Amino acid sequence: MDTPLLAGKIAALSLGALPVFYALHHVAALSHPLGVALMSALILGLFFVSIYTLSRGEIYYDPLYAVFAVFAFTSVVDLLIALQEDGYMMGFMEFYTKEGGPYLRTAHGIFICYWDGTVHYLLYLAMAAAIRRRKRYRNLGLYWLGSFVMSILVFLPGNILGKYSSEIKPTFFLAIPYVLVPCWAGLKVFNQSRAPTYCTPIMVQEEQRKGLLQRPADLALVIYLILAGFFTLFRGLVVLDCPTDACFVYTYQYEPYLRDPVAYPKVQMLMYMFYALPFYGLAAYALIFPGCSWLPDWALVFAGAIGQAQFSHMGASMHLRTPFTYRVPEDTWACFFLCNLMYALGPHLLAYRCLLWPAFFLHLPPGSQAPHKKQH
């Protein structure tokens, strides 16, 4: 996969969010929630028109260029929100978090803003630059898709179900395109052609003849997936109020954040249990039996989702905006950090393995079959 340069034009335009929102902070009309929603929609519309005017060639070549450009602008806005809420800057986004999205002032909201303002922002610039240079960006797009969808699937239900459900503002409905556009973008990314693997049929046959014990890296990954699956199921049972002593001890001594009434940690653990847990089982199967060509793509999507989720969950568990009783106790901080860090790193190692040595997951050419192996 080529590593593209960053899109300078989009970077320059997106940084225009600083003077724009600094000026809007002093507009009296924005003290009303409806005014904030309408102004936000207007700014995004004007930004899209600017991008369309300046970059018609790139948009005609790939419409996702406009999507990445607009989302890059919103990433800068999110970074401003996070920096403001942590006290690193003032006079930019107070009107928005007060009248537009009070749930962004939670610890979870702050950390999804940090992730969007850094990781997503760099991904947008890289993918836009790839489009401009007519390069591939499918792998970057899959990682972004998983990360973006996970943040939406946790944040929006958490807003509705948590203690801020009574403070839903008109700007909440701006999330509708944030749900629809990634669905369309995801289809566009998946339909792009894959990068060539340069694996010959002989290489594929040789790799697929090996048993699991002959592939120590895959064996280690299978063991990790099994352990991660048990950890996922356990934390899902914890947020479902399982009455066992183990769940009680874990909740109060290791991750009291799972009891926070903001609802984000509960929704996150349920997302893990209903979506991550089945994937762990399927991924272990794909590492044992050859020819599961779906795994490299979905491993990237899954790595993006877990990376975003764990960053937000770990950060919010220790942030000062989380009430003291729900923060990780100091005497168990090392255990909490190690377990959650390994939970985040494992899917990235799986995606790296799939991209670096894809022969085991390729379909054998017609008429060829590795002995004693089942093809999928």
From TrEMBL:
Pfam families: EBP, TM_Tm6sf2. GO terms for biological process: lipid homeostasis; regulation of lipid metabolic process. Its main location: membrane. InterPro entries: EXPERA (IPR033118), TM6SF1-like (IPR047195), TM_Tm6sf1/2 (IPR059044). This is Transmembrane 6 superfamily member 2. It is found in: Endomembrane system. It comes from Rousettus aegyptiacus (Egyptian fruit bat). The chain crosses the membrane at residues 33-52, 64-83, 103-128, 140-160, 172-190, 219-240, 269-288. The keyword Repeat applies. The keyword Membrane applies.
